[in-house]
Design brief:
The protein has helices at about 40-50, 100, 140-145, 150-160, 180-190, 200-210, 220-225, 245-250, 270-275, 290-300, 315-325, and strands spanning about 5-10, 15-20, 30-40, 65-70, 85, 90, 110-115, 125-130, 135, 170-175, 190-195, 215, 230-235, 250-260, 280, 305-310, 330-335. By secondary structure, it is of the alpha/beta class. It has two domains: about 5-150 and about 305-335, Alpha-Beta Complex (Quinone Oxidoreductase, Chain A, domain 1); about 150-280, NAD(P)-binding Rossmann-like Domain (Rossmann fold, 3-Layer(aba) Sandwich). Helix 4 packs across helix 5 and helix 4 packs across helix 10.
């Protein structure tokens, strides 16, 4: 087996450098994919910097992969060479635990993230267990679809998990890589959508994305003016908020759902939940079946992330661009080893 070219971090908080690795023999249940495009996600940077204490080096990031199948393990079913597919946050699970057998593969205790203990998509080729490989609908532009595999499923799954109805009023906190997709999905779902952002520059952009209303996320009075209005409030940011003010926006039986990796503890007053029967929940990405549903929905409603492109050879420039808050709204890397 030939070596695979990639870009890797050799230690926390270091710039990525060219790196070659031997993938070993293809396992019977694996698919090998020639990577065409790969999204750059904030989670890639968190893992590069070992913010979560889980990283293993050398580390090849990249978990929003789109490419074509070049090899199939002998036990793989339902795929063919040359088919265009995607891979997201996870690449393997044990397939025999209660979570996998009940369709919640992403909650498997042995699930393998694509970039933790596994070589990711900032590479010529990538491998994944075939159940975690998703066929890409033909009418989704492959050059923009990569971020759906992580960012897309992260904000789509809460609509399903919380039984959101088209008549519901959904709030989205943060108009960034996750939030802009949340607005697009919720609007296509049929919901009334209120976006919250601290950036005045993004207020008009949020309306163009589909938001019916836009409110400053740092104006407590404006937030409290929405008291009791929202059926679902989706938090896509990873910074502390005025949690009491935001919880006050929830209607009876309203849900505050967190998908942003807020590292600080979230203070919640019990009576803010009890008196209106509100709930606070969270979720990671989603199972392969949920991801397939998301891709079908995105294809039907022509939903794609708003992206900027960099060649993979300029990965460190792309990371600097994202960290500077300049990305509108997701960065996609074009694989350019050849």
């Amino acid at each position: 087996m030939s070596l695979i070219n990639s870009w890797a971090a050799m230690a926390p908080k270091e710039k990525l450098v060219p790196y070659k690795f031997d993938p070993g023999l293809l396992k019977p249940d694996e698919i090998e994919i020639e990577v065409e495009y790969c999204g750059l996600c904030h989670s890639d940077i968190s893992v590069i910097d070992n913010d979560w204490g889980l990283s293993q080096y050398p580390l090849v990031p990249g978990h929003e992969v789109v490419g074509r199948i070049v090899a199939l393990g002998e036990a793989v079913l339902g795929f063919k060479i040359g088919e265009r597919v995607g891979i997201g946050w996870n690449s393997e699970s044990d397939m025999n635990c209660r979570q996998c057998l009940s369709g919640n593969h992403h909650l498997c205790p042995k699930v393998v993230p694509t970039i933790i203990g596994h070589k990711g998509g900032f590479a010529e080729r990538i491998r994944a267990q075939w159940e975690w490989v998703l066929p890409l609908p033909e009418n989704l532009d492959p050059s923009s679809a990569g971020p759906l595999m992580c960012g897309g499923i992260t904000v789509f799954a809460p609509l399903v998990l919380n039984n959101v109805a088209p008549t519901d009023h959904v709030g989205v906190v943060g108009i960034g890589g996750l939030g802009h997709l949340a607005i697009k999905f919720a609007k296509a779902w049929g919901c009334e959508v209120t976006a919250f952002t601290h950036s005045l520059a993004k207020m008009e952009e949020a309306k163009k994305l589909g938001a019916d209303h836009v409110v400053s996320s740092v104006d407590v009075n404006a937030i409290r003016a929405l008291a009791g209005k929202l059926d679902l409030l989706l938090v896509t940011v990873n910074v502390p908020l005025d949690w009491q003010a935001f919880i006050s926006t929830l209607a009876p039986n309203g849900r505050l759902h967190i998908v942003g990796a807020v590292l600080e503890p979230i203070p919640i007053a019990a009576f803010d939940l009890i008196m209106s029967q509100r709930t606070v929940t969270g979720s990671p990405t989603g199972s392969p079946v949920m991801m397939a549903k998301m891709l079908e929905f995105a294809a039907r409603h022509k939903i794609l992330p708003t992206v900027e492109h960099f060649p993979l050879s300029k990965i460190n420039d792309a990371i600097a661009h994202l960290l500077a808050g300049k990305a509108r709204y997701r960065v996609v890397l074009d694989i350019d080893f050849k």
